[in-house]
Design brief:
Length: 283
């Protein structure tokens, strides 16, 4: 039996502008904002700030996926996630909420308690049963390219042909999802910037972003504040990488990408308002 919530699953004007997914990490160890959102009040204030500044989807993460992060297990992830998810859903009944998880048990509990999307950095690779959950709830599902896990991903960045290999992986993950009755029309592709890729490889993805669009799935790009931007800028502090991140947001507007996943919603919304006017509203 499919369980469908009462909210329309897509942001307003989906595909007609570059939508914004705002990141809220409920973790003490995320690379940029770990520990920043450790109380209900802080989280609700951040959600309110995001909503006031044009966010389209809130992305909640209770398990860090940065390189080197320790996995806390599904039960601890649920325990960390649910109090925040329930409060956000109560306070913001209409906002779209995504949950960043690769655990099927977490996905199930999240969708039962008000989440709308599942954003899986492994695309079902880590826990195949998450596809059954997504199928049951008939929700949007972000399939991300990655290799290995947080402990070993940095050593798994050897590719025969980077773009071809990523596309092949995304296609295979998509086929696997459809075999589990995941709705093709609810699948979103993410080429996985920063996941088992070095700086040059991340830049190659961005230079070849049109290659991923040929398959007609909406594309999500999550580059905000990531290490390769810090390497280009010689900036060790992730929170000082927002301006560099905006360059990628502009590219996404120029190439008609559906969504960017970002930490700083306000400035990305401002940039996108101008960029979308330039690139999407040509006479």
């Amino acid at each position: 039996m499919q369980i469908i919530n009462n909210r329309y699953p897509w942001p307003d004007n989906w595909g007609q502008k570059t939508s914004i997914m705002g990141i809220i990490n409920l973790t003490p160890d995320s690379f940029s904002d770990g520990g920043d959102f450790c109380t209900i009040d802080k989280v609700l204030n951040q959600v309110n700030h995001f909503v006031s500044n044009g966010v389209d989807v809130i992305d909640l993460g209770a398990q860090s996926t940065r390189p080197g992060a320790l996995e806390i297990g599904a039960k601890n992830e649920i325990k960390r996630l649910l109090p925040y998810l329930k409060k956000i859903r109560s306070a913001f009944p209409n906002i779209l909420i995504s949950v960043d998880t690769f655990n099927s048990e977490v996905a199930h509990e999240a969708l039962l308690n008000g989440a709308d999307w599942i954003n899986d950095v492994s695309g079902g690779r880590r826990d195949n049963e998450i596809l059954d959950v997504v199928s049951e709830f008939n929700c949007p599902f972000v399939i991300t390219h990655s290799r290995g896990n947080s402990q070993n991903m940095n050593s798994l960045n050897n590719y025969d042909d980077l773009i071809v290999n990523i596309i092949d992986s995304l296609e295979n993950l998509t086929i696997n999802a459809q075999r589990k009755n995941v709705n093709k029309d609810k699948i979103i592709w993410d080429p996985g910037i920063g996941f088992s890729k070095d700086t040059n490889q991340n830049l190659e993805i961005l230079r070849n972003i049109d290659s991923f669009k040929k398959f007609k799935f909406p594309i999500l790009i999550g580059a905000s504040r990531k290490r390769f931007i810090g390497e280009i800028l010689n900036e060790a502090n992730p929170k000082e990488r927002d301006i560099g991140s905006l360059a990628i947001t502009c590219l996404c507007a120029q190439t008609n990408i559906h969504m960017v996943r970002v930490h700083n919603v306000k400035i990305n919304n401002q940039v996108l308002k101008v960029s979308d006017e330039i690139f999407r509203k040509k006479n």
